[in-house]
Amino acid sequence: MKNNYILLFILLLLNIVSRIPLTPHGRDTVDSAFIWSLANSISISGVISWALHPLSFLGLYPLSYPSGSPIFLSFTSQVTGVSIENTILVYGFILGILGMLGSYIMALKIKDHYLFAFLTSFAFSTAPIFIELTSWSASTRNLFLALFPLFLWAVFWFNKKRTYLNKPILLIIIFGSTLMTSHRISFLITIILLSFTLAKIVWYIKDKPRILYYTNKLSENVRFLILILLFILMFAFQFSGIGFYSGIWNDYQSGALSQGSGLFSLSLNLSTNYIGQIGILIPVGLIGFLILLRKTKKDSNDIFIICLLMLSASILALGIYMAPFLLPIISLLIASGVCKILNILHGDLTTQGQTAGCIDCMSRINKKFPVVLLFICFLASISFSGFMMERHLNAPLGDTGDKTYMTHEPYVGLFLKEQGTRAFLSNDDLISKRIYASTGVPYLDVGINALINSWIQKDELEVQHISLNELSINSDYFLKFKKDHQIEKDFSWIYSHEIQNDASKQILKKYGVNSIVINNKILDEIVGADFVTYHSIFAKSITRSGSRVYDNNKESIYNY
Question: Is residue 315 part of a domain?
Answer without folding.
Answer: yes
